[in-house]
Amino acid sequence: MSITVTKDVFQLAEVFTISRGSRTEAQVLTARVDRDGVVGQGECVPYARYGETLDSVIEEILSLPSEITRAALQGALPAGAARNAVDCALWDWEAKSKGVRVWDILGLPEPKPEITAYTLSLGEPDAMEAS
After folding, report:
1. φ and ψ at 130, to 5 degrees?
2. DSSP letter assigned to residue 49
3. Among candidates 8, 14, 11, which has minimal Cα distance to 120?
4. Which residues contact 88 (CB under 8 A, 6 or more apart)?
5. By the 8 A CB rule, do 96 and 41 touch?
6. Which residues lie across from 113 on neighbouring strands?
7. Confidence band (pLDDT; 50, 70, 90) for 32?
8. Phi, psi values for residue 63, rounded to 5°
9. β-bridge partners, 39
10. 130 or 4: whose pLDDT is higher?
11. Rounded-to-integer distance, Cα 61 and Cα 56, Å
């Protein structure tokens, strides 16, 4: 098995501002687990407010032993972006290798759409209302 990680930078259509600052891009890391010709993928976004950087998360992911399991992962990395990305990649790999969906492995019903929150970018009241 091999574990790799890549960085993607996505330019935002417009500046996104919240109380902690503004962003013009999203920096996303993708962890890939490759075993027996099957590739599982998981993504994460490192958060500075939790002491994470792109480099620190990449280092955590690449520090893992090549045969890491989901159970071993829980003790190998602290909760955070790196563990999330690798955990998702391992679930994706298992589902693909078995030809099933993750919810089938867990014995859960197919997920349905959920209502979620939407964060508005701070701006002029009229612009925020139009969002």
Report:
1. -70, -20
2. G
3. 14
4. 31, 40, 41, 42, 43
5. no
6. none
7. very high
8. -80, -10
9. 34
10. 4
11. 9
pLDDT at 130: 83
Alpha helices (runs of H) in the chain, residue ranges in sequence order: 54-62, 70-76, 81-98, 102-106, 125-130
Residues for the chain: how many in total?
131
Which structure tokens are listed for 32?
Answer: 């890939």
Structure token digits, residue 128: 């925020």
pLDDT at residue 124, rounded to an integer:
87
- The CA–CA distances, whole Å, from 121 to 118, 130, 131 equal 10, 11, 9
Question: Cα(45)–Cα(14) distance, rounded to whole angstroms?
Answer: 19
Contacts of 104 (CB under 8 A, 6+ apart): 95
CA distance 14 to 16: 6
